[in-house]
From TrEMBL:
Signal peptide (from-to): none
GO MF, one annotated term: ATP binding
PANTHER family: D,D-DIPEPTIDE TRANSPORT ATP-BINDING PROTEIN DDPF-RELATED, TRANSPORT ATP-BINDING PROTEIN
Domain of life: Bacteria
Record's keyword terms, sorted: ATP-binding, Nucleotide-binding, Transport
Protein's name in the database: ABC transporter ATP-binding protein
Length: 245
């Protein structure tokens, strides 16, 4: 179970006077069962990416807990247990790495035989729907959809229990976006990975997720199952739904 319990997070504002704190998350709590998929939706600046960084253990909350099965997410024991895929896939792959090197980077073991590493890359490429010949390509030789598949292969290389996606499909055109979402659905079923899917796109979130959390000004305004989305109460969810229906 992934659990966020009573989390507050503030950043210090730079202004005329040092020291003013700007609260970004306030009393955020939710829990997700292993293998489930939760969409985090909210206006720009409402704190979604901050929450994503806390879930990845990249930052610590000022108050409250973020835990996976009772272990704080920043704990070394959970290394590789929660992966990330970001929107900015072009810059999240080192331009000097081949696809193979990029995929192996998080799991690189110098002593592992070359043949074994090659086999792992082929298998991961196959799982994300890319031919094994892509292993020798460089990032600039990939389309946006292909680069995003490489990022997904890299994210699943550590065999994580959860993946945090932060605006991960927004930059893709609609048909490529749908292909990537279908890939994520298939991986979720095949590998039992849970997803935290941060987005502005309520349609994409409804396609991939079981539940949605609506964020406003650092607080959870509403948590609703996708099946009941038409009954959403929060203004932001209603506004987004009006745009897509
Ligand atoms: N490292 C930081 N230092 C100071 N302020 C920050 C930092 N990170 C985020 N903030 C501020 O926290 C607030 C929330 O930012 P965050 O990126 O979490 O929002 P968001 O909901 O993901 O926005 P968007 O949808 O536009 O990406 C913003 O006002 C932002 O300026």
């Amino acid at each position: 179970m992934l659990m966020v319990d009573g989390v507050d997070k503030s950043y210090r504002k730079r202004g005329w006077f040092l020291g003013e704190l700007h609260p970004v998350l306030r009393g955020v709590s939710f829990a997700c069962e292993a293998g489930s998929s939760l969409g985090i939706i909210g206006e720009s600046g409402s704190g979604k990416s901050t929450l994503g960084r806390l879930l990845l253990g990249l930052e610590k909350p000022d108050r409250g807990k973020v835990e996976l099965d009772g272990i704080p997410v920043a704990d070394r024991r959970l290394r590789g247990g929660i992966s990330a895929v970001f929107q900015d896939y072009a810059s999240s792959i080192n331009p000097f790495f081949t696809v193979e090197e990029a995929i192996l980077e998080p799991v690189w073991r110098a002593k592992q035989p070359r043949r074994e590493q090659r086999r792992k890359v082929d298998e991961l490429l196959r799982q994300v729907g890319l031919p094994s010949s892509y292993g020798t390509k460089f990032p600039h030789e990939l389309s946006g959809g292909e680069a995003q598949r490489v990022c997904i292969a890299r994210a699943i290389a550590t065999e994580p229990r959860w993946i945090v996606f932060d605006e991960a499909v927004n930059a893709l055109d609609a048909s490529v976006q749908l292909q990537v979402l279908d890939l994520l659905k298939a991986l979720r079923v095949g590998r039992g990975i849970g997803y935290i899917f941060i987005t502005h796109d309520i349609q994409a979130a409804a396609y991939l997720c079981d539940d949605l959390v609506i964020f406003k000004a650092g607080r959870i305004e509403e948590r609703i199952s996708v099946g009941r989305l038409a009954h959403a109460q929060s203004d932001y969810a209603k506004k987004l739904l009006r745009m897509v229906i």
